[in-house]
Design goal:
- The chain is mostly helical.
- The protein has a domain of 84 residues.
- It contains 19 helices and seven strands.
- The strands form two sheets. Strands 1, 2, 3 and 4 form a four-stranded antiparallel beta sheet that branches. A three-stranded antiparallel beta sheet has the order 6-5-7.
- Strand 1 and strand 2 form a beta hairpin.
- Pathway: Secondary metabolite biosynthesis.
- It is a multi-pass membrane protein.
- Keywords: Membrane, Transferase, Transmembrane, Transmembrane helix.
- One of its GO terms (cellular component) is membrane.
- Belongs to the wax synthase family.
Length: 481
């Protein structure tokens, strides 16, 4: 590994995940055992669940702060805090949200009779609450697996033909069946921006998925090219790096900047980048988050057909063409994470108030992303007090970006509700205005998000080179690249 002038704080380039294995095993095993105690409402089990929460949180935080656990690259190491966050959110859901008992299972019914095997006539089913299985039964094991693994709305992928789901999916499944019944259509005919969820369908068709994946890859390649030291000149409004490898295609990007700017890699501050470049980096980071996973899901559905359709729900729902900011965050972005934020929001006072709940959800979103960079924010050797850990896990740029999304949704909702009836009839103009507002709220505060990433030196040639096939192969062998 060559030494860089701009190197991540205390970066370790030799993978070692062995210290993470016992902690992860204990936390996940403990949570799975607690799932067996649900939906028991007895006081003893409730106290066991409540007492388990702080212990699981303290254990999982070691995945965030202990630098002995590493994947050999500071950007790859973000996977460890993500795992810790997932454990903490699941613990909050099992130990606190469902402390009084729950969630209750739901099953499909046809003509008031329980269906034990779902067919393709989805419109005929109605999901209803059923009694939980007894503690000492195989059914309780399956129920515990469902509570432990289910995160998206829909039915369980374990023995999927049974159509098992949990009570928080009741409305989504019944609305979907009712839509199919009233419109006499099949799941593939539901419009992309319908009011019901599109179970069993990819976010994008095959060719669209390929195109968006190519866009994300090319954009990331552009960031990778800029992370290498190169001389940049402005000729006819184009940036042309002198690096021969990237000069051929990078010159096609119409990014106007000041003349004869020298970039020695990506700077440590977003505010040192020319505005067009900064906005393009914001778009690239956001695109990498949503385009690559959704494209991968779309491609996987070419060889895997989910049966029943309710066992699959795309993680994204065309966020690029979302009709507004509120719809983007409520339906189009990360279906796998929404329950996590709602569970964490319920821990704060007044969370039943919709306005406060919205604020809490985005606050926890910012905390999650701050946790991902905590080990880079806390210098090595620092005594880990409560104040130190809290400061490391609340990144102003990350939290600020997500709180801006909450404010943006408030403004969008208030303006739309205040519009005169005659203005609301101008649906095309209203739709264009809402989309323009959505992209403005994403791009402008997104500069704070990118600034936090650049501060942690996560966009350098050494870091980005860690995602080449050779580097990933070496990681699996426990070797530095």
């Amino acid at each position: 590994m060559h030494k860089l002038a701009m190197q991540p704080v205390s970066a370790s380039w030799t993978p070692d995940i062995r210290p993470a294995l016992p902690i992860t095993s204990v936390c996940l095993g403990w949570l799975f055992v607690l799932c067996f105690t649900l939906p028991a409402r007895g006081g003893a089990w409730r106290m066991v669940r409540l007492a388990s929460f702080p212990a699981i949180v303290l254990l999982s935080l070691q995945l965030v702060l202990d630098r002995r656990m590493t994947l050999g690259n500071p950007l790859r190491d973000l996977a460890l805090p993500i795992l810790a966050w997932t454990i903490i959110c699941k613990a909050a859901e099992i130990c606190i949200v469902f402390a009084p008992g729950g969630p209750r299972p739901i099953r499909p019914f046809h003509n008031s009779k329980l269906v034990t095997r779902i067919g393709e006539d989805y419109a005929a089913y109605e999901w209803k609450l059923v009694d939980p299985p007894k503690m000492a039964s195989w059914g309780r094991v399956v129920y515990a697996l469902d509570v432990f693994l289910l995160r998206r709305v829909g039915t369980s992928p374990i023995r999927p033909r049974e159509g098992r789901a949990l009570e928080w999916s009741l409305r989504g499944l019944n609305d979907w069946s009712r839509f199919l019944r009233q419109n006499r259509c099949n799941p593939a005919q539901i419009p992309a921006h319908s009011t019901v969820r599109r179970f069993g369908q990819p976010e994008m068709a095959f060719y669209a998925a390929v195109l968006q994946m190519l866009f994300a890859v090319v954009s990331l390649r552009w960031i990778h090219a800029l992370s290498h030291p190169c001389q940049v000149f402005d000729i006819y409004g184009f940036w042309i790096p002198t690096s021969p490898a990237s000069q051929k295609w990078i010159s096609l990007l119409p990014i106007t900047a000041v003349k004869q700017i020298r970039i020695s890699g990506i700077p440590a501050s977003a505010w040192k980048l020319p505005l067009p470049t900064l906005l393009f980096v914001v778009v690239t980071v956001g695109g990498a988050i949503c385009l690559l996973p959704s494209a991968a899901e779309g491609l996987s559905l070419l060889v895997w057909k989910p049966r029943p359709a309710t066992s699959f729900l795309a993680a994204f729902e065309r966020p690029l063409t979302s009709p507004g900011l509120a719809r983007l965050w409520a339906r189009s972005w990360h279906a796998t994470s929404q329950r996590d934020y709602l569970a964490m929001a319920s821990l704060l006072p007044g969370s039943r108030n919709r306005t406060l709940q919205l604020l809490y959800v985005f606050f926890w979103s910012g905390v999650q992303h701050s946790m991902m960079f905590a080990r880079l924010r806390i210098p090595e050797g620092t005594r880990l007090t409560g104040r130190t850990v809290l400061g490391g896990m609340v990144d102003p740029g990350m939290v600020g970006f997500f709180l801006c999304q909450a404010v943006g949704i408030w403004i969008e909702t208030a303006v739309v509700e205040a519009l005169p009836a005659t203005w609301r009839k101008q649906r095309v103009l209203v739709s264009l205005a809402r989309r323009a507002w959505m992209y403005a709220v994403l791009l402008v505060p997104g500069c704070m998000f990118v600034h936090s990433i650049l501060q942690h030196r996560l966009i350098t040639s050494a870091v980005l080179d860690g995602f080449s096939p050779r580097a990933l192969a070496l990681m699996l062998q426990g070797k530095a690249y």
